[in-house]
Design goal:
By secondary structure, this protein is α/β, with parallel strands linked by helices. The chain has 14 helices and twelve strands. Strand 10 and strand 11 form a beta hairpin.
């Protein structure tokens, strides 16, 4: 699963990305700072099972902090997008190509309204960020529409002559965008499009298909960034009234806190509602002032920086991700090296025990016999739907079983 960080230029996408991944990327106060995509690893935070089971865990692929499990997930930060990007304006549709594999999007906006539609600086509060959301989604749709329209007439005529299925054609055209045949069939059915005569579909109908397909296959939430600035709260309020999921974010503050935490200057872990300073004497005057700002303008007002909430929201909310704990010994909860609760895997909602076996190792899936629920000792079949925080042993005749 991959989450893309999108938005117009200069809104703080790379700052959000750097805060979420602690990767050093270019951040600057002008549009088109990012040209090539940045791929990185963020973590989603979930309650670990160690406390419930009264064990001290020794994770390998993830981190457990005070009973909270931080599980790695992939995030990509792309170039900013401007009106006309789908037709090559700005950095063109390169960024759209970079988003092909994304399963969900965090759309970062400048909630303070201090950048115009193209990301240039304007007086705070003078631009309405609602316009940016519309623009970004419209460009995405136009791009997808362009892919379908390129040879629509010719392709549909040939489908009608040969008896080919329009759903197969659409799925094939959009397969590079992680759109499946099931997604296409779902949208076509919902919109009641005439599958036997696709050449009769109007441009509006094709666009409607694109919009619904985008919503289904690239669900998004809004990270209302620069929430620390005074003009943001009003915009956040009015965006929320539109019914969209809006998370106030202060990416710069999150980046500062995570870097300070790495150096031991503050006690803070992602998603915390506040932070503490173990030794005021270790801080320079500038550091102390910056932390006071974070406390006053972010933590007290919003109860957190919102960055972790947005990452969690994308995976757990939009993608219905679940975290499962595979073990090799279901009584000791260990792997073969004796590590307790060694792994935590992020799986798409609806995944099965067999999917988990596939994720651990292909050999396990090939010889899959059954899974064992470590909590109850019950045997589970391959089609068992995984639940969040399941602890399972896979029993297989495969090499690693
Ligand atoms: N006040 C405030 N400024 C921020 C915040 N996040 C980012 N910025 C500033 O916004 C500017 C743009 O940040 P970037 O992260 O480079 O923005 P971007 O969206 O990646 O920009 P492009 O790559 O050019 O599209 C920089 O000056 C950041 O310091 C925030 O939470 N609060
Ligand atoms: Mg950037």
């Amino acid at each position: 699963m991959l989450v893309g960080v999108v938005g117009k230029p200069n809104v703080g996408k790379s700052t959000f990305f750097a805060a979420a991944t602690l990767k050093d990327v270019q951040i600057a106060d002008y549009p088109f700072t990012t040209v090539k995509p940045n791929m990185g690893v963020a973590h989603i935070v979930t309650q670990c099972v160690c406390k419930e089971l009264g064990v001290v865990d020794t994770p390998r692929s993830s981190i457990c902090v005070d009973g909270k499990r931080l599980v790695p997930v992939k995030v990509v930060d792309v170039a900013g997008l401007v009106e006309g990007a789908s037709k090559g304006k700005g950095l063109g549709n390169q960024f759209l190509d970079d988003l092909r594999q994304a399963d969900a999007l965090v759309q970062v906006i400048d909630a303070s309204g201090s950048t115009d539609l193209e990301g240039r600086k304007v007086p705070p509060g003078s631009h309405d960020p609602a316009e940016d959301i519309e623009m970004v989604e419209r460009e995405f749709d136009l791009w997808m529409y362009g892919i379908l329209k390129r040879d629509w007439e010719k392709a549909t005529r040939s489908l009608e002559q040969t008896g080919g299925k329009v759903t197969d054609h659409l799925a094939e055209r959009l397969s590079g965008l992680s759109v499946t045949l099931a997604d296409v069939e779902d949208v076509v059915l919902r919109l009641r499009l005439r599958t036997e005569k696709p050449s009769s579909w109007t441009d509006d109908q094709i666009m409607q298909f694109v919009i619904e397909t985008r919503k289904l296959t690239k669900p998004s939430l809004i990270a209302a960034n620069k929430a620390d600035l005074p003009t943001s709260s009003q915009n956040i309020e009015s965006l929320r009234r539109t019914g969209r999921q809006v998370i106030p974010c202060a990416s710069e503050a999150e980046l500062l806190l995570r870097r300070a935490a790495e150096r031991g200057l503050v006690t803070y872990s992602p998603g915390d509602k506040g932070f503490t300073v173990p030794d005021q004497g270790k801080l320079s005057g500038a550091q102390a002032a910056a932390l006071r700002m974070v406390e006053d303008k972010v933590m007290r007002v919003y109860g957190g920086t919102g960055v972790q909430e947005a990452v969690n929201g994308a995976f757990f909310g939009l993608l219905k991700a679940i975290v499962v704990f595979p073990v090799e010994d279901e009584t000791k909860l260990t792997d073969k090296d004796g590590r307790v609760l060694p792994d935590a895997f992020v799986m798409k909602g609806g995944s099965t025990a067999l999917d988990l076996a596939r994720t651990v190792h292909s050999d396990l899936a090939e010889g899959f016999l059954y899974a064992v629920d470590a909590r109850t000792g019950k045997r589970l079949a391959g089609d068992y739907r995984l639940q969040n925080r399941d602890i399972l042993k896979i029993v297989s005749s495969g090499k690693r079983g």
